[in-house]
Design goal:
Peroxisomal Thiolase, Chain A, domain 1; 10-stranded mixed sheet; 18% strand; 414 residues; two-stranded antiparallel sheet; 14 helices; alpha/beta
Length: 414
């Protein structure tokens, strides 16, 4: 079996459009949450989101792409091409059938769905765009990215709500581990900030109605009242260690474990016992071949919803031990919740945390819910020695995904 390493990373988010800027803002305690500007959200009762304000569309896309692709595909293509450039892989020298794309999305082309359904209602079905289906379906970010880079290996789009990106990365890890691919562009993309996206999650009472950005996304805080929706994409280039060493690639980190379970409990509410999520964490730790005590940091799903935060922290203690003092934080206090893309940008946060030996904090959270017993790091974060980190993603439908990352050092044994 192959060891699997990360050799490239790309992203777009409200905290920046490349991993280094994203990390500097995240580690510096900055927030990407602010008033919704894309449309008048007043009627929804929701006033804040984590919007990308400076997306560099022209770097890889042209005007025609704005008419032929939904925004979620724009984001996925951008993050994927950035990750590919970062990795330094020359695809002209590669077997295209050994290069894959696994890019998930929780919803897909939501803005296209909204626009075309309104057009049909007003003007009739004959006015529906002929590109409606290929713009809206959730696999098209993966398909469009594979088309751009000429990847002819496995190409999938995992749709598991907020666990989509984590499952995509995990399944790519396994695919390479067992020798089916040399490299895979893996991650997630989401573009849900429009009337139907905000209105739908508002109707579900999942979003906070707090208007102050500094008080809106406060994971684990006793005053938390729902999550803040975000948008963007993250992509990692996963590669077999054999392939990476052969081309003298710079290695950003290693994926050493993956766990996936289902709550089988409720459509939207997590299992309050935390057991299924704990089992996913245990599976990732077991595959990594380490003790739970070896985990130095957990990037929690931490959505800032009353149900998730308590259940997840209980699950973490079940997985790591009741007395565990492992540092836990949620970066959603800064980024908001990117739904199907969340796990990808959080994977990048974990890799950067291991590289820099700095655990990002849970910004804006001030008063921990007394029901939360885990060691939650609040504030701007702190420097600490770390070798292993977990990244948790828990999605509607009970989908649980966990990745285990190991810090890469030149002294690592090959």
């Amino acid at each position: 079996m192959e060891r699997v390493v990360v050799t490239g990373a790309g992203l777009t988010s409200a905290l920046g459009n490349d991993p280094q800027i994203f990390w500097e803002n995240l580690a510096g305690g900055k927030s990407g949450i602010g008033p919704i500007e894309r449309f008048d959200a007043g009627p929804t009762g929701i006033s804040v989101a984590s919007e990308i304000k400076d997306f560099p569309f022209d770097k890889y896309l042209v005007h025609k792409d704005s008419k032929r692709m939904d925004r979620f595909s724009w984001y996925g293509i951008y993050a994927g091409l950035e990750a590919l450039a970062d990795s330094g892989i020359d695809l002209e020298r590669e077997d295209p059938y050994r290069i894959g794309v696994m890019l998930g999305s929780g919803i897909g082309g939501l803005t296209t769905l909204q626009e075309q359904i309104i057009k049909m209602h007003i003007k009739g079905p004959q006015r529906i765009s002929p590109l409606f289906v290929p713009m809206a379906i959730a696999n098209m970010a993966a398909g469009n990215l594979a088309l751009r880079v000429g990847a002819k290996g496995i190409c999938t789009a995992t749709v598991t709500a907020c666990a989509s990106a984590t499952h995509s990365i995990g399944e790519a890890f396994r695919n390479i581990k067992f020798g089916y691919s040399d490299a895979i562009l893996a991650g997630g993309t989401e573009a849900p900030i429009d009337e139907i996206g905000i209105g739908g999650f508002s109707a579900l009472t999942a979003l906070t109605r707090e208007s102050d950005p500094a008080k809106a996304s406060i994971p684990f805080d006793e005053a938390r009242s729902g999550f803040v929706i975000g948008e963007g994409a993250g992509v990692l280039v996963l590669e077999s260690l054999t392939h990476a060493l052969a081309r003298n690639a710079e290695i950003l980190g290693e994926v050493v474990g993956y766990g996936a379970t289902c709550d089988a409990h409720h459509m939207t509410t997590p299992d309050p016992t935390g057991e299924p999520a704990a089992m996913a964490m245990k599976a990732a730790i077991t595959e990594a071949g380490i003790s739970p005590k070896a985990i130095d940091y957990v990037n929690a799903h931490g959505t800032s919803t009353p149900a998730n935060d308590v259940a997840e922290t209980e699950a973490i203690l079940q997985a790591l031990g009741e007395e565990s003092q492992t540092l836990i934080s949620s970066t959603k206090g800064a980024t908001g919740h990117l739904l199907g893309a969340a796990g990808a940008i959080e994977a990048i946060a974990c890799l950067k945390a291991l590289e820099t030996q700095f655990a990002p904090g849970t910004i804006n959270t001030q008063h921990l819910d007394p029901k939360i017993r885990a060691n939650v790091l609040i504030g701007r974060g702190e420097a600490t020695a770390m070798q292993y980190a977990l990244s948790n993603s828990l999605g509607f439908g009970g989908h649980n995904g966990v990745l285990c990352f190991k810090r890469w050092e030149e002294t690592n044994e090959f």
